[in-house]
Amino acid sequence: MRCKKIVALLSPYVDGALSGSRKHDVKQHLRACEACRAKLERIRQLGNLLDGLPVPSVPEGFAARVMAEAKTRLPETKAKWVLPPVTWDPLRWFLKFSAPMRLAACATVLLACVVGLTMDGGLLVDKQGQVKGSVQNLYGLELFDPTPPGSVDSIYLAMASPLNEEGNIR
Amino acid sequence: MESRSDEDLMLSVVEGDLNAFNKIILRHQRTAWSIAHRFLGDAAEAEDIAQQAFLKILEAASGYRPTAAFRTYLLRVVTRLCIDHAKKKRPIYTNTLPETQDRSTDPAQSLAMKERGTAIRKVLDTLPPNQRLALILRHYEEMSYVDIAQSLNISVKAVEGLIRRARATLKTRLSSF
Known about the structure:
The complex is a heterodimer of chains A (170) and B (177).
Chain A: H1 3-14, H2 20-32, H3 34-50, H4 62-73, H5 90-95, H6 99-120, H7 133-139, H8 152-160
Chain B: H1 6-14, H2 18-40, H3 43-59, H4 70-88, H5 107-126, H6 129-139, H7 145-152, H8 156-173
């Protein structure tokens, strides 16, 4: 193969990009041609020369700046940070509040309990087992006519009632 | 040490996992930065290009398909940005090189290295963008012609021609070294 064709192949030859017959032809030619060998050597020297171009390290904080920019540019991106496991102590959390706040919280809970108990019926009836008039008025309870005594319904109601016949809690 | 592949991390990015994106950046920032810096010769511009590359990848994450190695994808984005930048801006022939650690104890040797580096920088800046990129990817990133062709979206034959012409220019203009 003539030198002109070989010279055109020296670059890929140095880079290991030749294969098959092309690589074989270059190798064969180089064995016999000093001029082409000198050109090959010059290409290798250029490579060494290029190594002399310095490049500094990646600027510090580069990744952080990219992430900050990413978050501002893409608010609709579903940011799904994987959060570290959180261990939460409710008592410790509660104790962080001031005493008046804690007292107010307890009072609120107590009030909620009272309202709940009131709604439940424990405070709705008087000693006679009758719904208190005030409660009736307050909650707008509508009463049915009393069930006939001795009927199946009256027995069922007696069983379901929290009070016995003496008006005491069962 | 993160053991997940780039492609796996990118699939997490598609799901909105920014942690995975951060890992992608940490893994490939050196590559993006060094290519941009060798191409442009300016630290601020190189950082801008490298940052844009990662942000473009994030923006296009929903369309990401692991059909090729992620590195090839990243390089395609970086080289595209470099070429677009070169088209908009005329090259600046810089007389100064970035400060790097000088391992030479001999002042004369140190000076010679700096002069050589400056000369290389100047010659690289005169190369057409495609030649410059092909040479950078081949010599500094040690990429194969096939990978360079994929990154620049050209044929292997075209890569051969680019590198050959780039070296011919270097040979002429750096003959004194």
